[in-house]
Amino acid sequence: MTVLAPLEVLIVTGPLGAGKTTVVNRLLKAEVAAGRRVAVLINEFGAISVDGTLVDAERPELAGVENLVNGCVCCSLRNDVVATLQAWCDQPEGQRPERVVLETTGLADPTDLLDLELEPALAGRLRLAGLLTVISSLAPVDHLKTKPLLHRQAALASLIHLSKADLDPSAAVAWEGELRAAFRQIPLVPTRHGVASEGSPDPWRGDMRPLPEGWEAAGGPSFAEARSLTLHWDHPVDPEALEGLLLASPEAGELLRAKGVCVFAGWAARNDGSDRWAFQLADGRLEISPLPLAADGSAQACAAVVIGTGLDALHWKRALRALERPPAGQRRKAFL
Length: 336
Prior knowledge:
Elements: E1 7-13, H1 20-33, E2 38-44, H2 50-58, E3 64-69, H3 78-90, E4 99-103, E5 126-136, H4 143-146, H5 148-155, E6 159-163, H6 169-182, E7 188-192, E8 195-196, E9 227-232, H7 239-247, E10 254-262, E11 277-282, E12 285-290, E13 303-309, H8 313-321
Parallel strand pairs: 1-4, 1-5, 2-3, 2-4, 5-6, 6-7
Antiparallel strand pairs: 7-8, 9-13, 10-11, 10-13, 11-12
């Protein structure tokens, strides 16, 4: 009887908007280029998977793509994570993935994922290869002290990637100093466009250290306090109005993250045949990137996801709907 090698799992975590999906895409590309069968398990906080759409568009050759939405892989969706990993482990040699990248929502505490190897259905069939934490150098540096969840995500890492270091070198230096002072034992690598410099530590060779005695959950804002809302667009949206809405300070609550897929009014389809654009709001910056057609030639559905605390859901849905610019003779939906 052939004994199959354990499925290697790399956990990628970090705050909302840190650049995890960019890093995940780079990791997947490297694995495919090396000839390994790799799958990705993506957890998003919201009713739809925008990050899954971005990965699927770039990496159609993956051994598996699974999206878990409207929950957290470390708590409410843990059973789904175990079931997905078990299904991949059950696949025959030559079809089963060799490696899996597990990307958590930015609101997840990865502590409860570090015992996946002990799950009865996965025991002896899975090995945690590392925990890669991605932190944006554009976030306020005091977040390491004022955001307990970010501190915890960093403290549990086997490797930290300091993303967007090229966009503000001085901020990256400040973050590097704080992180090295707080976590001297954890390798730290500044990245640019999700790419680490040559010779950087391999994320798949992480030292998954046991948690120190007395380690307890930190207080502060948690997954349970955040809320997300999703709105599906029927028409193109005004690009300038979208920028104005997302970059303005909300009248109530705190906007943690916004992302989605849309068609922009007045923008022609590109040479690849797609008229879809992906937008991401993080660290007070709105990024727009072209979104190609899916592997089957279909276009992605247009929708927006907004994540925050204390947000007025009805206000945001009306504001997002108001961005639409219907063609002549058509109307947009109205909220009563």
